[in-house]
Write a structure and sequence with these properties.
metal ion binding; about 250 residues; secreted; alpha+beta; single chain; globular; Cu-only_SOD; Immunoglobulin-like
Length: about 250
């Protein structure tokens, strides 16, 4: 009986490792924008601001040009771990923002957004995890990204990347900080290196992108050296509990 009680105590803690917490107390004076005006025809912007009552981040998307020659959908977009390098190569943005090491497999379940990669915005907020239209406009609140530097869901010093068919990176942009009054918390944190009490080795997807694909498979996962902390922890816990019961 005591072994069963131990199992009930251990397993919920392990299963919770991949659950992203909701972000509260978002600042009202901070807005981040990512602009797109690319040679391949993609134009528009993303605007990130305080969610209602400071709960989460309100996201407004307005993009066009996906019917340009050579662009093939379906199209997805994600927050990526590193900013766009000076040469503009989108492969340099590395992997998705994934501070809880969830990984891309299985695909994001938009009905349980807390279990998705923090940076998988299209996975959490489009009907099929992607769109396949010449224009795309959307507004929503994401409860797991963060406008405050130093927190795991912070994205202001990173980038956003748009993908075409098979995960090919077709456009990317850095964020520009806009403030209305006062000054936001210092936003000079290096990608993958949170500050203060939130510092944790698991907050960094610091590997390099491989062939520039990270669709539904594991291409960017292996290239970025992402470890499955949650899965490994679950496997260890189950094995330990079974051993005790035997």
């Amino acid at each position: 009986m005591k072994f069963l009680s131990l199992a009930l105590l251990v397993l919920p803690a392990v299963l919770a490792q991949d659950i992203a917490p909701k972000t509260n107390n978002q600042p009202s004076n901070v807005t981040y924008e990512a602009d797109f005006d690319k040679p391949n025809g993609i134009k528009g912007k993303f605007v990130f601001s305080q969610g209602k009552g400071g709960e989460g981040v309100h996201v407004k998307v307005d993009l066009s040009g996906f019917d340009s020659q050579g662009l093939v959908g379906p199209f997805k977009y994600h927050l990526h771990d590193a900013p766009v390098p000076t040469d503009g190569n989108c492969n340099g943005t590395l992997a998705h923002l994934d501070p809880y090491q969830r990984g891309q497999t299985p695909p994001c379940n938009k009905d349980k957004p807390e279990t998705c990669e923090v940076g998988d915005l299209s996975g959490k907020h489009t009907p099929d995890g992607a769109f396949n239209t010449s224009e795309y406009a959307n507004e929503y609140t994401d409860l797991y990204i963060d406008l405050r530097a130093g927190n795991r869901g912070f994205f202001g010093n990173r980038s956003i990347t748009i993908h075409g068919k098979d995960g090919v990176r077709i456009a990317c942009s850095n964020f520009t900080l806009k403030t209305t009054t006062g000054s936001p918390k210092d936003n000079t944190t290096k990608p993958g290196t949170p500050k203060g009490d939130d510092k944790d080795d698991s907050d960094s997807n610091s590997g390099k992108a491989g062939n520039g694909t990270d669709g539904d498979g594991n291409a960017d996962d292996s290239a970025a050296g992402i470890t499955r902390v949650g899965v490994a922890g679950l496997t260890f816990a189950v094995a330990a509990v079974v051993g005790l019961l035997l």
